[in-house]
Amino acid sequence: MERRKMCWRRLLCLTLAALVLASCLTMTAFAADPQDSEENGIVDFVLVLDCSGSLNVTDPSHLCATACKMFVDMVPLENARISVIAFGYDGGTQYTLKNMSIDNPLDLKKVYLVSDMVEASAIKDKNALKQQVTDATSKSGTNTPLGTALLSAVDLLENNGASDKNACVILLTDGRIAAQQNRYDDKDNAHTAAKTAAPPPRPGSTTHPDWPVYTMHLNDGERYGAGSEETTLMRQIAEESGAGEDGYTPLTSFQEGNAAVARAFMNIFNRFMFGGNGNIITKTADAQGDVTCDFEVPELTSETTVIVSGASLKSVTVNGPDGSSRTVDKNNFDEQNFVATIDSNHESGGRQNKYICIKLLCPEAGMWTVQAKGDPNANIDMYDCSMRDLDLVLSTSLTDESRVLAKNEAVTFNAYFTYHGNEILKNPYYEKKQPVLVFTNTANGQKAELPMQAGANGGYTATISMNELEYQGTFTVAARLDDSMFRNGSKWSNSQSLTSENLPVRITDPKMPDLTGDVNGKTEKVDLMQHIENPDDDELFYELQCVSDRNVAFDYSIDENGYLEIECGLNYGTYALQLSVRDADMEQPLLLDPFQLETQKHAFSVRDIEPVELWTDHYPWQKDIRESAEFDLNDYYDEGDDLPVEIASESFDGDGTVYRVSRDGMHYTVVPLAEGEGTLTFTLTNQLKEEQGHLKVRVISGKAAFWQRNWIYFALAAAVLVLIVIVLCVLSGITRVKGSWEIDLEDGDGGRIYLPNLNIASNTTVGRKNKQVDLWDLVYEIAPFAEKSGLLSESLNFYPAMNQIHMRGVTFGSGFVLQKLPANVTAQYNGLPVSGKCRVSMGELRLTIQGEGTVTDVVCSLRYAGAR
User: What is the CA radius of gyration of the chain?
Assistant: First the structure.
């Protein structure tokens, strides 16, 4: 009978353990947004500790407590929650199942909640939590409800809303089962019973939560070792729950156990926090007790955990790529970007084992160095594990997220990485990969993705106009960065919420200004944006109406900046106008207050100029060159409003219709068709047809026009001709009369010749107008008389000058005129120097003749004696 009871107890316990596996494989995840679950949600860890009395034999070095405390130190500071459940001892807070039930509630009395689910970042004092672990593992009991403990762990995850693929259970046990009852040795039957008792999936889902169970098998290498039932069970739990072969870790000795624990935890963090592979290095200290290890930190690492352990470990120094250095040699060393914990383990073999856990938060990528100091020749282990679980933080330029945005309103989004309060703004990674903003319409689930760019001041940025989304509503916005370096290939930011709606146009100032303008002109421009607000920058539709008694239509234009300009057209006077406005989504337009438009007109008049004349026949002796009259109408009127002017009518007063009028624009041509006279009158009018003027074309005979216009010129020409004849007669008479001259010559010595009546008969020199005679012709005439009278002596050598003339081939009286004075003769006439071609009349002629060594001045007084 006792044997049967033991079998049933074991069967129940195995059933509960298998039930945990079935629960892990069949539970369905709650629906959640990607950014809140798989991509970068919080990872939940549940440590399940075996505190039964059998561990006193299988775990003499207390690796169970050491591993649990090491996990508390290694767990990431962000995006992680941790809980501790203990089983197999008496005391503590009993765990109560909330989502599951078991057949034997007595086993629950041996399952205790050491620490409820708490965020790692909220653990202010890790030593307090580790002390709770120490207190739990220091107690022991006789029962080991392993299956119930695992079932409680799954219940705890479900009760705390753990998401699919983001949670796991870590079981530390020797694998020995000693439940209250139903123990059974048949392993096959136990697994069959477990599958039969497994709970069904959650309603509406067929997926599994995928919460693997990692088993750490504590044994001394002799009991429950390889091939034992306990070992087989631990392997099966790990493999069947999804942890895989690496999910099973045997722990046999302390020294080997530390390395195995570190390796197992690295695998876990690598799976859930997407870290690097990590390194486990064992080195022997030199004669001074120093050990140096290098490790590389990959790009964009959230934290790197370094575990250094050894029985003789005294201090650890970490050197960064930038040359910085930090040394850990005291408990709870905590500094920004650098967290360190020193933990002393239980004594083993008379020596106290110790490990130092160092966390580098947001470390610089590159090669780091760890220098550990211990006893000479002692073994020191170093483990490093880097995790990429940075938070991507998204913020907006909105100060009030509840404010409704206009469709075209621009919002600036900024995103950057952060971890544990450290903002990472400057990093080369921002230039390599850029995220997208995912806009999700909360009403219909429609999504839109818009890119972000690397910001000038670091991080990412994007300025998005809401009309780029092409629809309205309330949106959740999150940034998603796709990269294989992140967990599940993507990193999601936090979500922002914003609402964009069609904001209708509204009138801010209904009073429009009164306007004035000229006929055929435009008014001044009015800025409608001073009266209308268009928050969505929608296309607006305007309508301008005349609301006065005279319903007149006015053309108007509104430019892209909202300026109204009204064309006055041909309307003049005072009008009441009213403007309405609406956008495409409005059924009824909005009305602004009526305003006045006063238009003014200016005078139209025909200029007072001579009529255009048209000759209908020829000049007396040649063809009339003006056998058509052309004129430009613009030259004959003034129109202040620039209104078009045209010929309204034409009439002819005279000898019948003798013309033809053709027009090319404002250019007119009148062609006579027959001889005759009269006046052609054109009546001009402007576009208003209210004011008229007249343009006349006078049609007259060409012959009559010739004599009427030219008789005065003929009279003047005759008078001038008579005057010319008289002058020519006078001049002709003078030039044909040779003259006689009275010449009185006198030298400086008193010598004198008086020629009362000297006839100059040379045809070539005398008889010039103005009673002038050529100077040298006169010299030739008087020289012989002067010589005969002794007034000019031979010594004066006057004749060499004459000889000089002869030498030039010019003879006296030959009719040639000297071109210049002889070299020895100079002359002055009335005090002025003269040359050979000088003309002289009455006055004083002074000749200076240079002889041989002498100078003689001959003064010749001239007086015209009269014609001969």
Answer: 64
